[in-house]
């Protein structure tokens, strides 16, 4: 049975999915329907390109180097522990829009936390923010049996004006892996700015 996480809630992956080794983190979203009013022709008609990324942090919550950022231009961590399955430029379609596979035993010991983030590509020039996005979610799936372990749903309007989101983190704790649902909206001009805050 899937756990529907609340903001700030933490779960033990060892407890909820005993024997878990390979998991898939899926992220999805829909663009809110635009109103059809008289001035609707002035509204932004560009596609929403949300980019999911993983930041691999050390024990002090810092990035050691740029290779520890997994995103659309660096799809695989050098350890092969984390693989981004590709960029979705529009968010169209049902289910996950972007997926990231994590092999927990392969994560190097120097990495203590995986932070899953999403930002809106070219948000400034397109005048886009998360208030225009509906049905955003992050979910974890045990790839051994395709069972959904946990899901965290995000409301769009709460994030009006926010252009980035720190969605969830998976972290080591006393030899166990745990997941925390965060859902922290932030204002950033792109992934580079978000990455700098962890450098």
UniProtKB/TrEMBL annotation:
This is TerD family protein. It comes from Lusitaniella coriacea LEGE 07157. Coiled coil: none annotated. It holds the Pfam family TerD. InterPro entries: Stress/Tellurium_Resist, TerD. Residues 1-198 form the TerD domain. It comes from the Bacteria. Transmembrane segments: none annotated.
